[in-house]
Write a structure and sequence with these properties.
The complex is a heterodimer. Chain A is mostly helical. Chain A contains five helices and one strand; from the N terminus they run H-H-H-E-H-H. Chain A is elongated and about 100 Å long. In chain B, helix 3 packs parallel to helix 6 and helix 5 packs across helix 7. Helix content of chain B is 62%, strand content 1%. The chains are: A mainly alpha, B mainly alpha. The interface between A and B is large, with 40 and 65 residues. Strand 1 of chain A pairs antiparallel with strand 1 of chain B. The complex binds zinc ion.
Chain lengths: 148, 182
């Protein structure tokens, strides 16, 4: 005969026993107890049946159209993100290099240089505005800040 | 939209010993379950889809630098969970997401047996929905998604002991509500 508190102890372990997550020794104890004790065995069988039923629960499928979006975004957007990252990093590096060179070799600029700079600055501004717009358009930008 | 997502088709978590898998394989075998995980956390289909998409995108970006010996499901689920928590926070809803009874799909119509089964499934889903969010989450991760205790501990940031005891309490609650129908 088993003491009443032993049933309670076994009950606490039934869930992990069901999942095969007990140590060998504990699992053996539960197994032996279940052979003798009808009440605990019934509890275990109910638990196992509920686990089976839970496995079989069927949930709504994700919308088919969005599935296509997801596939597309993985093949297209991931490299694109990376592409933009490289372009932006390149432009930033080029800017820093240009600024340092400019400061180190400063002399009054010629007219040609002033015109050239205006054109370059204009292009850069246009580029940055397009880049910012594109980055905003990337879906789910709102999640960007969270890291894992 | 007639198809349903059920457990046995896509076992999650047993790929570790069959060599490193490609991202495409990993995506293919798990994305529907991943979507359901997000759906159960946020309760809205559109948001769940956004979150699933974003999570895969992040894994994709770091796929090459991951530890190939580790099965990536726990990683994916952690990312989804963080995104979902952030989403709920942004929505400024302190209370947990409401999980719709209608998220459940009835199995394809059949003879009486099927109707009986589907009624049982509805009761079970109602019982699971009535659990506190933290218990519901852990129960679904184990029994529906098929994660083991180690993976669950990693996703939820809990010790193995806490995983085990929380799961035990969740199951006892569900059993209490369901035993007269079994
Ligand atoms: Zn007993």
């Amino acid at each position: 005969m088993t003491a009443p508190n032993q049933h309670e102890e076994i009950r606490q372990m039934l869930s992990a026993y069901l999942d095969g997550e007990l140590t060998q020794g504990s699992a053996q104890r539960v197994r032996v107890h279940l052979e003798d004790c009808e009440e605990c065995r019934r509890a275990f069988e109910e638990m196992a049946r509920l686990q089976e039923l839970t496995k079989e629960l069927a949930f709504a499928e994700p919308p088919e159209a969005r599935m296509k979006d997801l596939e597309k975004s993985l093949s297209v957007q991931a490299p694109r993100r990376l592409g933009w990252l490289f372009v932006l990093a390149g432009v930033a590096a080029w800017f820093i290099y240009g600024t340092i060179t400019y400061i180190r070799h400063w002399r009054p600029p010629t007219v040609e240089e002033l015109i050239g700079s205006a054109v370059v600055i204009g292009f850069v501004l246009l580029f940055v505005s397009v880049a910012v717009e594109r980055l905003r358009q990337l879906p789910h930008d709102k999640y960007r800040r969270i890291e894992k | 939209m007639t198809a349903t997502t059920t457990m046995p088709a896509m076992p999650v978590g047993d790929a570790a010993d069959s060599g490193p898998e490609s991202f495409a394989e990993f995506f293919e075998r798990g994305w529907k379950k991943a979507y359901c995980f997000a759906l159960h956390l946020v309760g809205e289909r559109e948001q769940a889809m956004d979150i699933t998409q974003e999570a895969y995108l992040r894994l994709h970006e770091r796929w090459a630098s991951r530890d190939p010996a580790r099965e990536p499901t726990a990683w994916l689920y952690s990312v989804i969970r963080n995104l979902a928590i952030d989403h709920l926070r942004r929505r400024a809803r302190r209370q947990e997401a409401e999980i719709d009874q209608a998220l459940l799909r009835s199995p394809a119509a059949g003879p009486d047996k099927a109707a009986e089964q589907s009624e049982l499934a509805e009761r079970l889903w109602a019982a699971i929905r009535s659990l506190p969010a933290e218990q519901r989450e852990i129960l679904l991760l184990r029994d529906w998604h098929g994660l083991d205790y180690g993976q669950i501990a990693e996703v939820l940031g809990l010790s193995l002991g806490t995983v085990s005891s929380r799961l035990h309490h969740a199951r006892e609650k569900v059993r209490e509500q369901m035993r007269r129908y079994l």
